[in-house]
Design goal:
The chain is an all-beta fold and 168 residues long. It is 0% helix and 42% strand. The chain has no helices and 14 strands. The protein has a four-stranded antiparallel β-sheet with strand order 1-2-3-4, with no helix packed on it. Strands 5-6-7-8 form a four-stranded antiparallel β-sheet, with no helix packed on it. A four-stranded antiparallel β-sheet has the order 9-10-11-12, with no helix packed on it. It is globular and about 50 Å long. The mean pLDDT is 93.
C-alpha cells in the first residue's frame, strides 16, 4: 500500500493499484473535507499497477511510477498535475530496469529510484531521472552487490548530502 502524500496545496494525493476505469490503477486527490477525486485511470500503455507513493516536483506536479504497463510492460515513470493533466515520462525496457518502486526528489533537482528487476544483470538498478523524463542507470546490481531492491514504506532511497542510501 502506497502512502498518501500531502501536496503544498494542502490536499492529499495517492495511488490505487487496481481500481479505476480499466481496473489497472488510479491517481487520486483527497481533500481535507474527505472529497475523493480520481485524477487519472491507468490504461496499460500509460502504465498499470502503481504501488509506490507520489513525489511533488519543483514544478508542483506529482511524479510517480507504475510497477508494470507501458510500452514493454516493465513499468513507467509519470507526471500528473494537480488538475489531472497526465504525461508518461519514461518507459522501462528491462535493459534499463523493470518494476520500478518509487521516486525521491533530491536537492540536486533530479529524481532517483530503484527497479526490482532488469538492468544489465537482471537483478535491478538504481536510476536517475531528469524532471523531463530522461533516465540514466547509475547502478546495475550484480547479485553480489545486491538484488531486487524493495519498496519500503518511506521510499526505496534516502539521501544525505551527495550520497543515496537504500537496501536490497
Amino acid at each position: 500500500v502506497a502512502p498518501l502524500m500531502q501536496h503544498s496545496d494542502g490536499h492529499f494525493y495517492g495511488v490505487a493499484s487496481t481500481n479505476g476505469a480499466f481496473r489497472l490503477g488510479t491517481v487520486f486527490k483527497l481533500t481535507s473535507a474527505g472529497v475523493l477525486t480520481t485524477l487519472h485511470s491507468f490504461g496499460g500503455t500509460d502504465g498499470s499497477g502503481p504501488t509506490a507513493g507520489l513525489v511533488e516536483g519543483a514544478d508542483q506536479a506529482l511524479y510517480g511510477t507504475t510497477s508494470s504497463g507501458g510500452t514493454g510492460g516493465f513499468g513507467v515513470v509519470f507526471k500528473i498535475t494537480t488538475a489531472g493533466v497526465f504525461m508518461k515520462l519514461a518507459d522501462f525496457t528491462s535493459s534499463n530496469g523493470s518494476v520500478p518502486h518509487g521516486l525521491m526528489r533530491h536537492v540536486d533537482g533530479f529524481f532517483y529510484g530503484v527497479t526490482q528487476g532488469g538492468g544489465a544483470n537482471g537483478f535491478g538498478t538504481v536510476f536517475q531521472m531528469t524532471p523531463e523524463g530522461v533516465l540514466t542507470t547509475l547502478l546495475n546490481f550484480t547479485g553480489s552487490t545486491g538484488a531486487a531492491p524493495g519498496s519500503e514504506a518511506q521510499g526505496p532511497l534516502v539521501a544525505s548530502g551527495n550520497f543515496l542510501y537504500g537496501m536490497t
